[in-house]
Amino acid sequence: MEVIKTIKEMKEFSSQARRAGKTIAFVPTMGFFHDGHLSLMREGRRRCDLLIISLFVNPTQFGPNEDFKNYPRDFERDRKMAEEVGADVLFAPEASDMYPSNHQTIVRVEKVTQNLCGRSRPVHFQGVATVVLMLFEIVTPHAAIFGEKDYQQLVTIQQMVRDLHMRVEVVGMPTVREEDGLAMSSRNRYLLLEERKAALSLYRSLQKAKELLQKGERKAERILHEMKEIFQSEPLVKIDYVQICDAYSLQDVNQIEGDVVVALAAYLGKTRLIDNLIFHAL
Amino acid sequence: MEVIKTIKEMKEFSSQARRAGKTIAFVPTMGFFHDGHLSLMREGRRRCDLLIISLFVNPTQFGPNEDFKNYPRDFERDRKMAEEVGADVLFAPEASDMYPSNHQTIVRVEKVTQNLCGRSRPVHFQGVATVVLMLFEIVTPHAAIFGEKDYQQLVTIQQMVRDLHMRVEVVGMPTVREEDGLAMSSRNRYLLLEERKAALSLYRSLQKAKELLQKGERKAERILHEMKEIFQSEPLVKIDYVQICDAYSLQDVNQIEGDVVVALAAYLGKTRLIDNLIFHAL
Predict the structure, then answer these.
(1) Into how many domains does chain A fold?
(2) Neighbouring residues of B33: CB distance < 8 A, sequence distance ≥ 6
(3) Among B21, B102, B108, whose Cβ lies nearest the Cβ of A106?
(4) Would the pLDDT of A282 be above 80?
């Protein structure tokens, strides 16, 4: 596996690969890999001739009071994991190369970024859309693999690619969970023992929603009510939102008819976690 | 020359050309070609194996009270001119294909679009940046040719390409003028006879600026003063702006030191014309 640190070299590598007729799978990450990342990488490995993984903790997708500085980093561990999964390139650019002084271009996906996490993280998705577009220009992938755990991010990237007529295929992969059900996240390592226990109520509430949906409940309000009862028994959980939205527009629904996402975000102490359930009502 | 009307076919053409190792020059236009367009096309023809011209009157770069509906159109004439200049493809997509319902992604270049035309046309440059990025994704050019007459547009596209790490080379070509000096523009055809005469004062004022600069004048204020005196003798000319700006940041300068652009916009009746002069002070 090659470690590439400059945009120039990464562009040259991908140009050469394209000229040689190779297909490129791409997994953009912020590092500190867990089994969720590995499932994306394995899917990329399976799909294309070459697998390129980027590792870049993107400053522009963090708000001023968020955890950019403390975001967990361990390059040596990540490098080994990427190598073991069979990646061809680990691309780890510098922020000063990605955003040289005088950088001033922003990509905004408007409607699908307004609701859910967009409410409490107003600059997050324009940071994500911009950096992902930049990475796509540098890496020129045929397929890019994202996790469904960050569901609004996945929808945002799919919408951007469609709107801008980009050629990359955007692939979503199911959330990978710990044995007890907690969605894997690099941020789980922030959790204190008691918080880790309380965090399981996020998964339990989604399981409750699934059970109700499978029984035929179609009133969002009733499902949300039962989910909130579960959190009320967990004083360490401060809910940011729990919503049921159309799976593509991400607008709230009352009467559930088509595909929906039951999505939530919550604080455990200072740690903000998200999780969701995708349900096909038809 | 092939006329292509769908994005799908255009993508297939450019993919195939790229796979065959051909280089692509691209001239994006809104049609109603004049000698200015032809000079861009000839430069594209000279630079690459293939020349692709797009013809698309992009609705999103017009403000609500601007001339989108009345913008001059003559497809048959444009088709012939593109053919004569030796284009390989004239790409003329439908707005409904470029912007399907639910389109919601916008590319904004922030600082260089604030001054000059950005003041009176607040949505113009995000419309331009977005459509040009879309066209670049569809056409995948090696080089894209723009006119210096739309100088702020050229700087905006150059900034966008640099910021997003795109691979296309953006080439600017000198303004082509009528025999008497009026900058060629598709909008010149709107001018009534008296307006056409008065419009020449735009060129005369830029010639005056050039003369002063060549004599060594470095105070922007003094140059602008003399330019304004020229317009004051033309009651049909309503100045929108006359400014001297740094040629790259497009911020106003007082003391002229490096490369500058002397830029102006004016109304003649309902017709808004722009022109500029690029001057290298060092």
Answers:
(1) 2
(2) B77, B78, B81, B82
(3) B108
(4) no
Q: CB B105 to CB A109 under 8 A?
A: yes
Question: Measured between beta carbons, which residues in chain A are less than 8 angstroms from residue B159?
Answer: 104-105
pLDDT tens digits for A143-186?
999 999 999 999 999 999 999 999 999 999 999 999 999 999 99
Evaluate whether residue B247 is within a structural domain: yes
With residues binned 3-state (H G I as helix, E B as strand, rest as coil), the percentages for chain A, rounded to 5, are: 45, 25, 35
What pLDDT, in 10s, does the model give residues B55-68? 999 999 999 999 99
* B281 or B262: which leads in pLDDT: B262
Q: What is the ipTM of this complex?
A: 0.97
pLDDT in tens, A76-91: 999 999 999 999 999 9
- B11-46 pLDDT, tens digit each: 999 999 999 999 999 999 999 999 999 999 999 999
Which of A173, A199, A232 is at the close of a domain? A173
Asked if residue B79 and residue B37 are part of one domain, the reply reads yes
Residues B24, B158 within the same domain: yes
pLDDT at res. B75: 98
Q: Are residues B159 and B237 in the same domain?
A: no
Structure tokens at A10: 């990464």
CATH of the domain at B212: 3.30.1300.10
Same domain as B200, residue B126: no
* Share above pLDDT 90 across residues of chain A, in percent, rounded to a whole number: 98
Which is catalytic among the residues B37, B124, B142, B225? B37
For residue A281, is it within any domain?
no
Contact A110 B129 (CB under 8 A): no
Mean pLDDT of B94-117: 97
Task: Looking at the structure, tell me whether residues A10 and A39 fall in a common domain.
Answer: yes
For residues B88 and B1, the answer to whether their CB atoms sit within 8 Å is yes
Whether B64 maps to a domain, the answer reads yes
Residues on chain B bordering chain A, Cβ-to-Cβ distance under 8 angstroms: 7, 11, 15, 18-19, 21, 98, 102-112, 129-130, 133-134, 137-138, 159-160, 163-167, 249
**Cβ–Cβ < 8 Å for A127, A275:** no
Find, among B53, B51, B56, B81, the residue nearest to B71 by Cα: B56
User: Are B43 and B16 members of one domain?
Assistant: yes
* Alpha helices, H only, chain A: 7-19, 35-47, 75-84, 95-98, 117-120, 124-139, 151-163, 193-214, 220-232
* CATH label of the domain that carries residue B147: 3.40.50.620
Is the CB of B164 less than 8 angstroms away from the CB of A133?
yes
> Comparing C-alpha atoms, which of B123, B116, B150, B151 is closest to residue B239?
B116
> Between the CA of residue B14 and those of B55, B141, B150, B230, what are the distances in Å?
16, 8, 27, 49
Query: What DSSP character marks residue B190?
Result: G
Is B37 among the catalytic positions?
yes
Structural domain including A265 reads: 186-276
